[in-house]
């Protein structure tokens, strides 16, 4: 018998935000996670060989324009002044991203100002009409013209989706932003930075509350542990942040996801690529990008004779693969609606986070939506919270 006021399934940013807020209001919260560490996909760890902080589930860059979220996260960590910038390699040449005036002028060997570049791309984009594009390729060309599309979007997208862009629906991309300045800062948000002591220290501070107990390596669907689904639903209020289709035993079918494979390598040099993230735009390179983690923290005194890099490969998830990005086919959307109807009639359980709602959420979005759940939905489950 679980002796808690609230059970939170999943210790990612969504689950920990709910747990911390509820504990701060005097509730006893049990957080379980099937993994052997807390923090969900934002978890990071120190590579033993190089001493460099590595993001185990892919690079995580914090950015937000939501003042409430910014105020909240600053209770647990300070942030560095890191600003994210990305470059891409195409046919042996490196270009800045997102596509900006620097990319355009380097690519066309030109010296256009903003108006001339805009006119050039508008002329090249005239080949297809965006509103009648029949596939991703036509849509991409209608947005930025064929030359830039073929160089920077076509093969990269094919690698991400293991599918030729002529076979992908146009809705996969709604816009391809082009900046008619030389600004290549990746995010436009008011606040950006990386946690000074790393992600795991931040996540641990969120869980470090006398009202919170965390149990790791504990699966909600494992009947052998006491906080399992059949022993808790209807008995103790539950916030569930695992996959929504798994909760209902895939009764409406499986929702499809893309996953990533990561290949790490320690190199006997101080610096491999001179930048945190290098994309590989062409089809002759199987990976989509390489992360070099030392560059996320130039302020740290990392050793200068070794570096760690991580190559990223993208593919459709199968079986027990980690679900990373929702594929969102028309069938997925149908299934999601069916699951949403089921969640609405599942009394005593709230569904949240990226897996529980089947949507891509940045960290600030996961935290913001958890704060809203605590304000708006949790008091229905826990009347003691109402009126706080
Ligand atoms: P999250 O997946 O983190 O946590 C869910 C937890 O539930 C997991 O720990 C899981 O083990 C647990 N769980 C699942 N089933 C369970 C069960 N049956 N029993 C017990 N526990 C269970 N965001 C951003 O702002 N900047 C960035 O740069 C990136 N980069 C990035 C890269 C990649 C490759 C991905 C996939 C995602 C990002 N993100 C990101 C998004 C970020 O990872 C996301 O916002 C958070 O993970 C969301 O937190 P959640 O708590 O919703 O899920």
From TrEMBL:
Pathway: Cell wall biogenesis; cell wall polysaccharide biosynthesis. Its cofactor is FAD. It catalyses: UDP-alpha-D-galactose = UDP-alpha-D-galactofuranose. The keyword Flavoprotein applies. Its EC number is 5.4.99.9. It comes from the Bacteria. Keywords: Cell wall biogenesis/degradation, FAD, Flavoprotein, Isomerase. One of its GO terms (molecular function) is flavin adenine dinucleotide binding. Residues 151-360 form the UDP-galactopyranose mutase C-terminal domain. The keyword Flavoprotein applies. It holds the Pfam family NAD_binding_8. Gene3D superfamilies: NAD(P)-binding Rossmann-like Domain. GO terms for cellular component: cytosol. One of its GO terms (biological process) is cell wall organization. Belongs to the UDP-galactopyranose/dTDP-fucopyranose mutase family. Homotetramer. Catalyzes the interconversion through a 2-keto intermediate of uridine diphosphogalactopyranose (UDP-GalP) into uridine diphosphogalactofuranose (UDP-GalF) which is a key building block for cell wall construction in Mycobacterium tuberculosis. NCBIfam families: UDP-GALP_mutase. This is UDP-galactopyranose mutase. It comes from Aeromicrobium marinum DSM 15272. The lineage of its organism: Bacteria, Bacillati, Actinomycetota, Actinomycetes, Propionibacteriales. The gene is glf.
């Amino acid at each position: 018998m679980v002796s808690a006021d609230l059970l939170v399934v999943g210790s990612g940013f969504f689950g920990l935000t709910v747990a911390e807020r509820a504990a701060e209001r005097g509730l006893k919260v049990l957080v379980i996670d099937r993994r052997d560490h807390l923090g969900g996909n934002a978890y990071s760890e120190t590579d033993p060989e190089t001493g460099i902080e590595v993001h185990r589930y892919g690079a995580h860059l914090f950015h937000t324009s939501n003042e409430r979220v910014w105020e909240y996260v600053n209770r647990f960590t300070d942030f560095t002044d890191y600003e994210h910038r990305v470059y891409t390699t195409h046919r042996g040449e490196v270009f800045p991203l997102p596509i900006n005036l620097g990319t355009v002028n380097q690519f066309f060997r030109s010296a256009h100002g903003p108006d001339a570049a805009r006119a050039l791309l508008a002329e090249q984009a005239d080949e297809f009409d965006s509103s009648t594009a029949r596939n991703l390729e036509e849509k991409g060309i209608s947005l930025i013209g064929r030359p830039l599309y073929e160089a920077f979007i076509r093969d990269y997208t094919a690698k991400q989706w293991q599918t030729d862009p002529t076979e992908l629906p146009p809705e996969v991309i709604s816009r391809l932003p082009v900046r008619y300045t030389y600004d290549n800062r990746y995010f436009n948000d008011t606040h950006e930075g990386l946690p000074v002591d790393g992600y795991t220290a931040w996540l641990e501070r969120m869980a470090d509350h006398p009202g919170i107990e965390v149990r790791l390596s504990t699966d909600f669907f494992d009947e052998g542990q006491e906080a399992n689904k059949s022993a808790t639903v209807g008995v103790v209020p539950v916030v569930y942040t695992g996959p929504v289709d798994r909760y209902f035993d895939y009764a409406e079918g499986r929702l499809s996801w893309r996953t990533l494979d990561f290949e790490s390598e320690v190199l006997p040099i101080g610096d491999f690529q001179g930048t945190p993230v290098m994309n590989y735009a062409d089809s002759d390179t199987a990976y989509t990008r390489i992360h070099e983690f030392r560059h996320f923290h130039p302020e740290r005194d990392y050793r200068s004779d070794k570096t760690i890099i991580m190559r990223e490969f993208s593919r459709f998830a199968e079986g027990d693969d980690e679900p990373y990005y929702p594929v969102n086919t028309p069938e997925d959307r149908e299934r999601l609606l069916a699951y949403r109807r089921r969640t609405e009639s599942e009394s005593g359980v709230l569904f949240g986070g990226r897996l529980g709602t089947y949507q891509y959420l940045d960290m600030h979005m996961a935290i913001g939506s958890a704060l809203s759940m605590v304000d708006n939905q949790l008091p229905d489950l826990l009347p003691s919270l109402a009126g706080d």
